[in-house]
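Hello K.,

You asked for the raw outputs rather than the summary table, so here they are, unedited. I folded two proteins back to back in the same session to keep the settings identical. This is the first:
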Amino acid sequence: MNNVYGLIVSFAYIFVIIGISTVLSAKKIFNGESSRKFIHIMVSNWWFIAMFFFDNVWMAAITPAAFVIINTYSYKNQTFKAMERDGSKKDLGTVYYVISLLILTLVTFTRGLEAIGAIGILTMGYGDGFAAVVGEKFGNTKIKIGSGFKSIEGSLMVFFFGFAISGFVFASMGDAWWGVKALCVGVVSAALELYTKDGFDNITLPLGASLLSYLLMLV
């Protein structure tokens, strides 16, 4: 029954987050980007729900698989405006996000590597999420990436969360080289977020950080 409870809690949690963001946006407490990043950060915590409830990978995969469909529909029809960008900035970032959740669920929950998946998902959620917030408010040092700009200050947030999250996981495994390995994950995570555009960093960042963490775990 834990898997069934996990599904109920998963859908309830995500829709509550979207609902909160929608209400705060309607009250003008959040602007469009703040609303998106609130959802971006908070939904990554679903990984903790998955690790706690699910012992069946296919049951765990139902939630992200369902939201691939839901988010694609929302992207096309602006159903959940709190998590969508408008106009020229519109991208498939919300769809890529749940595709990453689905891939890492299928890959890590079948091998007992949920903690490695957590590195990628939480670095994407918190690192990329706070990168936008910090970059918007304090990002004075800009780098031109393609046709747009990203801030060094924002990239430092990705580095920080990549380092902190992977460092915690490696240290909890008793790895004596946890600091060096976490440094590698932080640097690579920041680079992936910095040089990937159009929302596709929601694919490259979590998958790249998790893959690198897995390879470093084997060393």
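The second followed immediately with the same parameters:
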Amino acid sequence: MTENVQRTLIVLKPDAVQRAIAGELLARFERRGLRLAALRLLKVERPLAEKHYAVHQGKFFYEELVKTISTSPVVVAVLEGPNAIAVVRAMVGATRPHEAAPGTIRGDYALVGLRNLVHASDAPETAAAEIALWFPEGVVAYARDVERWMTDEGAPS
């Protein structure tokens, strides 16, 4: 990976899966130019949910986070691309859906609190830890010819 290419983790939460918009949300990331490096559908068991949300342990909303992500299957993906963490966070929008700007995922699809559709890593260290947690077998590295048309690196002149 080049210097500005990053990997980040997203979790399309149970509300995205139950509302049948997981594919549509994944497509938004791909249309932006991000590459899928790993993808899976799974029912989250409590131990994994607790590890994922360990940073929030002891906070008043911790138990509800763990319970919510464990209610129904989720789609988990690793996205890769230039400045992927910042790009994904901007696309997802503010944590509180009523504060999320129109055009963001939460601004376009979410209304309240924990029903905010998607989790996205917030920093390189967090992304690395979350990717290792959700994809211990690793991710797939590959190139797409289209990437040279979306970045400054290798763009034909």
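The radius of gyration is 16 Å.

Happy to rerun anything if the numbers look odd on your end.

Regards,
P.
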